[in-house]
Amino acid sequence: MSVRQRAKRRAPARSESERQAKLQTILDAALDIFLEKGFADARLDDVAARAGVAKGTLYLYVPSKQALFEALVRSGIGGPVRAIEQKVPDPDISAEDQLRGLFLFLRTEILGTRRRDIVRLLLMEASRFPELAEVYHREVIVRGLRILRCIAERGVARGEFRSDEIARFPQLAIAPALVALLWTSLFQRFDPIDIEAMLEAHLMLLMKALKGHPS
Amino acid sequence: MSVRQRAKRRAPARSESERQAKLQTILDAALDIFLEKGFADARLDDVAARAGVAKGTLYLYVPSKQALFEALVRSGIGGPVRAIEQKVPDPDISAEDQLRGLFLFLRTEILGTRRRDIVRLLLMEASRFPELAEVYHREVIVRGLRILRCIAERGVARGEFRSDEIARFPQLAIAPALVALLWTSLFQRFDPIDIEAMLEAHLMLLMKALKGHPS
DNA sequence: GTACACTGACTGTCCAGTCAGTCATTTTGC
DNA sequence: GCAAAATGACTGACTGGACAGTCAGTGTAC
């Protein structure tokens, strides 16, 4: 009885994969807490509790609260952009379908997942972490906009699109996704909108504008 | 000499207008500090120093740090929406020109002023102040979207617009303004874009899409 | 028996909010 | 007129609590 008194203790995470798994547990917990309270108000005691470890353990995986935040953000960016970069060069697909594919990807791989929350957290804290803002800009924004511009330019070159606004300002094409992101976290609770239908409407508008025919 | 030793002391602010002026000084200082550090990291000592008063004085104008933040946000919203609501009902102006007027107003009265920073601050902190998010939604978002929807519906009713997407999702029309707001504060520093040209391009796209002709 | 992942009580710092005190100005008493 | 007393806006040193980061100690695996 006395031997079993104190609950089973996890085996020490020796192997690299066990270490990575535990780090991920900590990052997941940190995301929850940071989302709920914001960076400054988040307590590492709470992060530790949610991850099921003691506070000291956090410092075996991450050297400071700020580093924890940065690790969290870095773990959530980059992957999807690479995935898209591979799919885009296909020249058999019309620019329209490429844009549609991109939006589908956005919806299912970002807006519909935990990554959405990471992006939101980043947007909220970025002005206090200029270095992180720069990383995100370089690794995600620049590359994402390049893809969009590439699609738009090809559309123009083939005569599929008659307008070059998206090639000049690819930001315009993803702006509604940003609205969707923020609306979801701020207002959806008391004024729900159908995000999917909104993005669909945006695509329709965009196609009408780019192709220059009446529907 | 000994009499003049200590600098002139402000005369006590007795009248209501003097009190309001000092409150405004404090709110301005608070906006600077909150923008720089975020709500949680902002120190009231710094706010007081920037406003040129002692910390205790803040508490003669505002009961708590949170109340200071709320007063700051409330002081910056509402005004412009009312101004627009008065201008819109004019039926002599085409829907297109109404939209253009709205965007001009956005650029000059919000994106080009201190209000932009208040909105940014609000967006960043809103998830930690749900009540404030609700006030902002009710006082600004709902009313702003109503105006947009109204313009879009009139455009459709007159046959000026052939698409109803903006009437269904007025958010789509202002999405680029949100991008402009965030880009300015996060990335403009190392990747400047021409906000005005971007909003102009958005209007062109929107018009092409709504009117359904080639340019 | 030792190496090492893990623990959690502890420490030093930071800051929101307080309040006894200061000092122009106004009012009262003569 | 003028001194003394009252007023109240303003001050800033102080307090109490909170929390990031530490480290001596514990238990487990091998």
How many helices of chain A? The count is 11
Quaternary organization: homodimer
Low-confidence stretches of chain A: 1-10
Q: Using the CA coordinates, give the radius of gyration of chain A.
A: 21 Å
Query: How much is the average pLDDT of chain A?
Result: 88
Short description:
The structure is a homodimer of 215-residue chains. By secondary structure, the first copy, chain A, is an all-alpha fold.
Structure description:
The structure is a homodimer of 215-residue chains. Mean pLDDT of chain A is 88; it is low at 1-10. Helices cover 71% and strands 0% of the residues of chain A. The first copy, chain A, has 11 helices and no strands. With 215 residues, the first copy, chain A, is mainly alpha-helical. The longest helix of chain A is centred in the last third of the chain and has 28 residues, at 130-157. At the A-B interface, helix 7, helix 8, helix 9, helix 10 and helix 11 of A face helix 7, helix 8, helix 9, helix 10 and helix 11 of B. The first copy, chain A, binds a DNA duplex (30 and 30 nucleotides) through helix 3.
